[in-house]
Structures are given as C-alpha cells and as structure tokens.
Task: inverse folding
C-alpha cells in the first residue's frame, strides 16, 4: 500500500465501492423478490433447502 501511487489507490478504492454498490443492489432485488413471491420458484430458479441438498448429494 505504501509503494502504490495515490492515483492507483484511489482507482482501486473506487472500483471496490462500485462493486459493493452493484452487489447491494442485487441483494436488495433478490430480497424483494423473496418477499413478493413466497414460492419455491423465483424467476425460473429453484430454491432448495439445506436438507434437500444433502439428500440430493447423498451426504
């Protein structure tokens, strides 16, 4: 960190913040879809519980 130019440090920090914002938006959208649809099917994605996955994987 001390050997890095300030511009590079600022660029990396900005990229990380943008990634964090995109991740938060995706999480919020997912949580909203969970609240709106209490079904096991969410936009063509099947959600399995932990025990179901263990059975499917023979664990």
Result:
């Amino acid at each position: 960190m001390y050997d890095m130019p300030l511009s590079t440090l600022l660029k990396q920090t900005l990229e990380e913040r943008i990634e964090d914002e995109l991740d938060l938006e995706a999480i919020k959208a997912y949580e909203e879809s969970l609240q709106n649809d209490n079904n096991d099917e969410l936009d063509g994605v099947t959600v399995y519980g932990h025990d179901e996955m263990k059975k499917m994987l023979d664990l």
Observations:
- The chain has two helices and two strands.
- The first strand starts at residue 41 and ends at 42.
